[in-house]
From TrEMBL, chain A:
Species of provenance: Salinactinospora qingdaonensis
Domain of life: Bacteria
Transmembrane region(s): 14-32, 63-80, 92-114, 134-151, 172-190, 196-214, 221-242, 248-268
Keywords for this protein: Membrane, Transmembrane, Transmembrane helix, Transport
Protein's UniProt name: Metal ABC transporter permease
C-alpha cells in the first residue's frame, strides 16, 4: 500500500511535505499553547492569505509574499498584544478579518486569478506541491527547528511566566517576536498542505491530545510531534484512497486522536491517583480535562 | 537592644560589607495613572534579610517588582547591585520568587522541569545539563522538601507545594540575591518552617533576601529590618514591628497600616509601633 503511494512522484513530494508539517507545527504549537496563544496561528494564517493574493497580484511567488506578510503581521500582532492589553483580542480580530478581506480583494485585482485560486491556499492542495515547494518547505522547517533548538530553554521560561523571564534578564520582547515570527514561518510551511484555515489545527490539536497523556513538557512536545506526523501521513493516505480533501482528513484524524487521548488520559489519571489521594481530591481532579488541584492556585 | 546584637552579627556575614544590593530613590510606579508606589527611597545592603510588610494593596509587590525593573517607573530611580535594571547584566545573581505560579500554559510540566528552568541563564546553549546543574536542581528540590514529587506535573500539586516549587526554581541557579513575593501565602506551617530553615542557610552563605510578607510568622527571628508600606508609601523602616496583645494571637490576620505617620521626618519610630486591627483599607 505504501509502496503504491510512493510510486507516484507527486505523492512522494506530498508525503514529504506533510511529514515536515506534522513535525514542525506541533513543536512551535507547544510553546503557543503554553503561552495561551493557541489562536495566534489562526490569525497569522488569515494574514498569510493577503500575502498569497499579493503574490498573484505582483506576479511573484505566493509563498514568498505570504512569508513576508505573515511575518510582518505576526510582529504587529505581538506589538499590539503588548501595547493594548485591554483590547488585545479585539485588535487580533481586526487583523484576522483584515487578512481575509485583503486576500479576497487583492486576488480580484490580480489578472488571471480569482477566488478559486485562493481556495487552494485556504484548504491546501498538497497534490500540486512541486519539487521547488518541497525544497522551500524543507528549508523553512530546518529554520524553525534550528530556532527552537537554539532558544528552547528561554522560550520555555518566557511561555511559563514573562515576569520570571524578565527577572532572569532574558530579552522578553525579542523572544516574543521569535515565537511570533517562527509561528508565521510554520503557517507558511503548512499552508500548502492543510491550508491557512486549518494551519492552526495542526499546531494546537496534537498538543491538546498529547497533554492529556503526559505530565512533562518534553514528553508532551515529543508526543505532539508523533501525533502530528501520524495524522499527516494518515490523513494524506486516506485522502488518496478515499478521494477526500487531504487537509480536512489530516485535521479530523488529529481530532480523533485527541478524543481517544482524553479518554485514555482519564483512565491513566484515575490509575495514578489511586492510593495516593483521597476520593474527593480525585473527583476534583477529574472534573476538568487538565489535572489541577486547588482552584485559584493557577491564575488565569 | 536585641536589634543591635543581630546587626553586628550580620555585618560579619556580608560578602562585601556596605555594598548595596538594592537602592531606590523616590521611586514612583503608576498603574493606569493611579499611583501604586508614591516615592519610595531605600537602600538594602548585601547580606541583609529584609521583610516588606503592609496590608493588601499597600504597594509591597509593586515595590519589589520595581526594584527588579519588572514594573516601569513613572519617576525616580532604582539600582540592582549598583546598576539600573536596564544596564544590569548579572541576572544570574538574582533569584525571583513570584507570588504564584502563573497561568504558565495549558501544557503540563514536571516539578523538575520547572525547577531546572531556573538555571536558564547559567546553562550553556545547545548543551545538555551538566552533572553540577542536575545536582543543583536536586539540591533545590530537597531544600523545599519536594524531592519525591520531582516527576509529578506541577498542576497536580497544592497551592502551597506550587509555592515551594517556585522557591526551588529560584534556588536552582544558586543566586545570592533573592526577592520573594509572599512565599508564605497558602503555605502550611511545616512548609513555613522549612522556608525559615532555607532562608537561614542562604543567609549563612551571605545571601541578600528581600521577602514580601503579610505577617512575619516563623520568619520573624530572621528578619534584620522591616520596611512597612501603607498606601504606596514607606511608613516604617527599621526593627520588625513586634505584635502584642490582640495581634499576638496565633493565626491573627495582621494589618500594619501606619497610616499618615511618617517616621523618617518625625524621628525614630516608637519601640512598639501601633497596630490597627480593622481591615479598613
Amino acid at each position: 500500500m505504501v509502496i503504491e503511494l510512493l510510486s507516484y512522484d507527486f505523492m512522494r513530494r506530498a508525503l514529504l511535505a506533510a511529514v515536515l508539517v506534522g513535525l514542525v507545527a506541533p513543536l512551535i504549537g507547544t510553546f503557543m499553547v503554553q503561552r495561551r496563544l493557541a489562536l495566534l496561528g489562526d490569525g497569522i494564517g488569515h494574514l498569510a492569505l493577503t500575502g498569497v493574493a499579493l503574490g498573484f497580484l505582483t506576479s511573484t511567488s505566493p509563498v514568498l509574499t505570504a512569508l513576508v506578510v505573515a511575518a510582518a503581521g505576526a510582529v504587529v500582532i505581538e506589538l499590539v498584544r503588548v501595547r493594548a492589553r485591554t483590547s488585545g483580542d479585539v485588535a487580533l480580530a481586526l487583523l484576522f478579518y483584515g487578512g481575509i478581506a485583503g486576500g479576497v480583494l487583492l486576488i480580484g485585482l490580480a489578472p488571471g486569478a480569482n477566488n478559486a485560486t485562493l481556495t487552494a491556499y485556504l484548504f491546501g492542495s498538497v497534490s500540486s506541491v512541486n519539487a521547488t515547494d518541497v525544497y522551500v518547505v524543507a528549508g523553512l522547517a530546518a529554520v524553525v527547528l534550528a530556532v527552537l533548538g537554539y532558544f528552547g530553554r528561554e522560550l520555555f521560561v518566557l511561555c511559563q511566566d514573562e515576569d520570571t523571564a524578565r527577572a532572569h534578564g532574558l530579552p522578553v520582547r525579542l523572544l516574543s517576536l521569535v515565537i511570533a515570527v517562527t509561528a508565521a514561518v510554520t503557517v507558511v510551511i503548512a499552508m500548502r498542505v492543510v491550508g491557512v484555515l486549518l494551519v492552526s489545527a495542526l499546531m494546537v490539536v496534537p498538543v491538546a491530545a498529547a497533554q492529556q497523556l503526559s505530565r512533562s513538557f518534553r514528553i508532551t512536545m515529543a508526543l505532539a510531534v508523533v501525533i502530528g506526523v501520524l495524522a499527516a501521513l494518515g490523513g494524506l493516505s486516506t485522502a488518496y484512497y478515499a478521494d477526500v480533501a487531504p487537509g480536512a482528513a489530516i485535521v479530523l484524524i488529529a481530532l480523533a486522536v485527541f478524543t481517544c487521548a482524553v479518554v485514555v488520559g482519564r483512565v491513566l489519571r484515575r490509575y495514578r491517583h489511586t492510593g495516593r489521594t483521597s476520593p474527593i481530591e480525585e473527583k476534583r481532579a477529574m472534573v476538568g480535562t487538565m489535572p489541577q488541584t486547588e482552584s485559584g492556585s493557577v491564575s488565569s | 537592644m536585641s536589634v543591635d546584637v543581630s546587626s553586628t552579627d550580620r555585618s560579619k556575614r556580608h560578602s562585601r560589607p556596605g555594598a548595596i544590593a538594592f537602592r531606590a530613590h523616590d521611586a514612583v510606579v503608576e498603574y493606569d495613572r493611579r499611583p501604586a508606589l508614591r516615592g519610595a527611597t531605600l537602600e538594602i545592603e548585601t547580606g541583609e534579610i529584609i521583610a516588606v510588610l503592609g496590608p493588601n494593596g499597600s504597594g509591597k509587590s509593586t515595590l519589589v517588582r520595581a526594584l527588579l525593573g519588572l514594573t516601569p517607573l513613572a519617576g525616580g530611580t532604582v539600582e540592582i547591585h549598583g546598576q539600573p535594571p536596564r544596564r544590569f547584566r548579572d541576572w544570574g545573581r538574582i533569584g525571583y520568587v513570584p507570588q504564584r505560579l502563573s497561568a504558565g500554559g495549558g501544557v503540563p510540566a514536571t516539578v523538575r522541569e520547572i525547577v531546572a528552568s531556573g538555571q536558564v541563564v547559567r546553562r550553556r546553549r545547545l548543551r545538555r545539563a551538566t552533572a553540577a546543574d542536575r545536582e543543583a536542581v536536586t539540591e533545590a528540590l530537597s531544600a523545599v522538601g519536594l524531592a519525591d514529587r520531582a516527576h509529578d506535573s506541577i498542576h497536580e500539586l497544592s497551592g502551597g507545594q506550587q509555592q515551594r516549587v517556585l522557591i526551588a526554581r529560584a534556588l536552582a541557579a544558586r543566586p545570592d540575591t533573592f526577592i520573594m513575593d509572599e512565599p508564605l501565602a497558602g503555605v502550611d506551617a511545616a512548609s513555613q518552617r522549612a522556608l525559615a530553615d532555607t532562608i537561614t542557610a542562604l543567609s549563612a552563605r551571605g545571601a541578600t533576601i528581600v521577602v514580601v510578607l503579610h505577617e512575619l510568622g516563623p520568619l520573624e527571628p530572621l528578619i534584620d529590618r522591616a520596611i512597612v508600606l501603607s498606601h504606596g508609601r514607606i511608613t516604617h523602616e527599621g526593627a520588625p514591628p513586634r505584635p502584642e496583645g490582640e495581634c499576638a494571637r496565633p493565626g491573627h490576620d495582621h494589618v500594619h497600616p501606619h497610616a499618615e505617620s511618617d517616621y523618617s521626618s518625625t524621628g525614630p519610630p516608637p519601640a512598639v509601633p501601633t497596630f490597627e486591627v480593622s481591615r479598613g483599607d
